[in-house]
Specification:
With 413 residues, the chain is mainly alpha-helical. The protein contains 17 helices and no strands.
Length: 413
């Protein structure tokens, strides 16, 4: 039985809801980066030709993102209708089953199906977890709680990197599934959000119709989404597809996917840590995110204009710095959660990051479709202008939520 709801004004950033959310994000990140870590080895074992390995890795990652897009709406609406903790339980159960089975695939179609199902399961982890954290912590501790979730969660990438050095690709998936099942036990002890419990039988909980029923809510949602696009533009194009991008930049020497991923996610850990404390120091979510976005935009411009013929080691260092500049992912999800009332909060916090992740698929398709005619780097440059223009515009117009009281609901309309 799940313990009763709780909302303590003195709740610690190391409380059980924060730990539960952080460990959920840990397995989320572990699984996402695993494709980049073991993709080549696993696909060659399944009979994919060497020249098709990189496109197939992109395809599998895209399918997982599609699953996360579907799961984001599914788990978000469930969390607003029936509770945050119950949703986290169902989410991790779905992920754990699919990832465990992924260690036993014998054909590419099985791999594809299980990546979609795993994506659906993982979709609820960060958004619902952050929703639980911001509703259980007092307002002055919410930024620190998100920082703990982000830093501990992103360490899942480092664990994936270490494990794949010593175990087979099959065992890496099996371990991921077993970690998820272990987390189920901890979630039995978790408390429900006090704000959600106080909401009672409010109409419109988790309603997509309510979410998109007014111009104001549609605009807020679009602005939140725009904040997340630069992260998956940089991480997806320069890291997960780093071998292709490095080749276009004339990087000397091979850029291994594993190394690019661990460099990037190490930067992300540092970035998320700095972002959490920066928002508390500035007493502003918008100012902190704005500074990170400017750094990411300038870094992208520098790469596309001036990086030519660098060594593979220098490119990996650059991946680490890129990770740092977009190290506001948990803060971005926190902002999304704080923009909306309790009856729609989990729906928004869960769908926004997964829609942003899902945008990697059309971005990837667009690049590969246009690159033969216009050149790989010019297409990247044009896409970067659009992505950063949308994000910087959003951070200017979004409402500041650093000290917002979250005891409100979206009105029925």
């Amino acid at each position: 039985m799940v313990p009763p709801a709780v909302k303590s004004p003195s709740a610690s950033v190391w409380s059980l809801p924060v730990l539960v959310a952080a460990l959920g994000y840990f397995v989320d990140i572990y699984d996402i980066v695993l494709i980049g870590m073991v993709g080549r080895e696993s696909l060659l074992a399944l009979g994919v030709t060497p020249e098709q390995v990189v496109p197939t890795i992109g395809h599998l990652l895209g399918l997982q993102m599609v699953g996360m897009l579907v799961g984001g709406f599914l788990w978000g609406m469930i969390a607003d209708k029936w509770g945050r903790v119950a949703t986290l339980f169902g989410s991790i159960l779905t992920y754990s089953t699919a990832t465990l089975l992924n260690g036993f695939v014998t054909d590419l179609w099985q791999y594809e199906v299980l990546r979609v199902v795993a994506g659906i399961g993982l979709a609820g982890e960060l958004g619902v977890g952050i929703t639980l954290v911001v509703e259980c912590l007092p307002r002055e501790k919410r930024a620190y709680g998100a920082t703990v979730v982000a830093c501990l969660g992103i360490a899942g990438a480092l664990m994936a990197w270490v494990l794949t050095k010593y175990v087979s690709w099959q065992m890496a998936f099996i371990i991921g599934g077993l970690m998820g099942f272990a987390l189920l036990g901890l979630r039995w002890l978790s408390h429900e959000s006090g704000l959600f419990a106080e909401q009672g039988a409010t109409l419109g909980r988790g309603s997509l119709r309510l979410l998109f029923s007014t111009r104001d809510r549609c605009l807020r949602y679009a602005q939140c989404l725009a904040l997340g696009l630069p992260t998956w533009f940089l991480v997806g194009i320069f890291v997960f597809l780093g071998a292709k991008t490095a080749e276009a930049l004339g990087v000397v020497g091979p850029v291994l996917g594993k190394d690019a991923i661990v460099a990037c996610y190490t930067g992300l850990i540092v970035g998320d840590f700095v972002a959490g404390f920066l928002t508390a120091w500035l007493e502003s979510r918008r100012k902190a995110v704005g500074l990170f976005l400017l750094a990411a935009a300038l870094t992208t411009a520098f790469i596309l204009l001036f990086v030519r013929g660098w060594s593979a080691t220098a490119y990996l260092i650059l991946c680490g710095w890129m990770g740092f500049t977009v190290g506001f992912w948990a803060l971005f999800v926190t902002i999304a959660a704080e923009q909306f009332g309790t009856n729609l909060r989990a729906t928004v916090a869960t769908t926004v990051p997964n829609v942003a992740r899902g945008c990697f698929y059309p971005m990837q398709w667009l690049i590969f479709a246009l690159a033969p005619g216009y050149g790989y780097l010019p297409v990247l440059g044009a896409l970067a202008i659009v992505v950063f223009a949308l994000a910087l515009t959003a951070v200017v117009f979004l409402k500041e939520t650093h000290s917002t009281d979250l005891s409100f609901q979206e009105e029925l309309s």
